[in-house]
Amino acid sequence: MEMNQYLSIFLDEANDHLQALNENMLRLEQEPEDISIVQVIFRSAHTLKGMSATMGFEDLASLTHEMENVLDLVRNNQLKMNETIFDALFKCLDALEGMVQDVVGGGDGKADVSELVEQLKAIVRGDAGKPASAASAPGGVADGPLVATQLLLDQYQLSVLQQSIESGLKVFHIEVFIREDCVLKAVRAYMVFELLERNGDIIKSHPSVQDIEQDKFDRSFSVYYVSQIDEEQLKAAILNVSEIEDVTIMQVDRSSLAELDQSKEQESQAALQAVKAMRETSAAAPAASAPAASAPNASAPAADTGKKAPAAQAKPAGGAAAGRTIRVDIDRLDKLMNLFSELLIDRARLEQLASEVRRNDLTETVEHMARVSSDLQNIVLKLRMVPVESVFNRFPRMVRDLAKSLDKKVDLVITGAETELDRTVIDEIGDPLVHLIRNSIDHGIEPVADRTAAGKPETGTVHLRAYHSGNHVFIEIEDDGRGINRQKVLDTALKRGVVTPEEAKKLTDDEVNMLLFAPGFSTADKISDISGRGVGLDVVKSKIESLGGQVTVTSAFGKGSKFSIQLPLTLSIISAMLIKLGSEKYAFPLSSIVETATVRRDQIREVHGSRVIEYRSSIIPVLSLAELLESPDYRDDQEEETEMLVIRKGEKLAAVLVDDFIAQNEIVLKTMGKYLTNLQFVSGATILGDGQVALIIDPNSLIK
Amino acid sequence: MAEELKVIVFTLAHEEYGIEVDKVRTIERMAPITRVPKTPPFVKGVINLRGVVVPVIDLRGRFGLPETEPTDNSRIIIVAVGDLEVGFIVDSANDVIDIMSDSIEVPPEVVGGVKAKYLSGVAKIGDNRLLILLNLSEVLNRSEIIQLEEFGE
Question: Which of B48, B142, B149 sits opposite A675 (nearest CB)?
Answer without folding.
Answer: B142
